[in-house]
Amino acid sequence: MNITIRAATPADRDAIVALHKAAAVTPGALARAPEEVTSAYAQNAINSDICLVAVGAEGLVCGEIHAKRETVALFAHVLGGLTVAVHPERQGQGIGSKLFEALIAWAKAQDPAILRIELAAGGGNPGAIRLYERLGFKQEGRQVARGRLPDGRFEDDILMGMLLL
Ligand SMILES: CC(C)(COP(=O)(O)OP(=O)(O)OC[C@H]1O[C@@H](n2cnc3c(N)ncnc32)[C@H](O)[C@@H]1OP(=O)(O)O)[C@@H](O)C(=O)NCCC(=O)NCCS
Hints:
Keywords: Acyltransferase, Transferase. The protein is an alpha+beta fold. The protein has one domain (4-163): Gcn5-related N-acetyltransferase (GNAT) (Aminopeptidase). The protein has four helices and seven strands; from the N terminus they run E-H-H-E-E-E-H-E-H-E-E. Bound molecules: coenzyme A.
């Protein structure tokens, strides 16, 4: 697999929109439905404290991860608001893992230090939860009925955290 992980730039905005729209088609994966993935959303992702894209040999963006450092002093060691997406045709090839490894390496290099990374995963997304546990995240809690699917069913959110102490 020939994948490069690099910082996103404003020129990646449309590619990030297309990627998230494609990944959002799978029900219960990303929080946003395809129609909720907008240019403004992608721009906001690029403006996050960390936004990385995975680029294939053909030069296409096939994965993206972004997160934000908390701004309140009490929580300033926490990296949250994390979202990750890999194009459906490229899932299961190690791209998500590579994006996380790069994000964790970036977090470990920050000064002042980032000491905690947190995320939430839909309870109906066991594959993603398994991946996050393999990367070192621990399940910390469950928000009951946090999500409501288009068919009216509720879904819990699983809160996960990783300490970099
Ligand atoms: C979750 C996601 C980012 C993982 O990226 P990836 O490149 O597929 O992951 P990797 O190849 O590095 O690792 C594979 C692992 O990811 C998990 N996984 C989650 N969704 C998967 C999918 N659709 N296909 C394959 N693996 C998936 C599995 O645990 C798998 O490990 P396994 O071999 O033990 O089953 C990606 O599948 C994706 O974008 N899914 C749709 C959007 C989404 O669910 N985002 C996360 C919201 S919390």
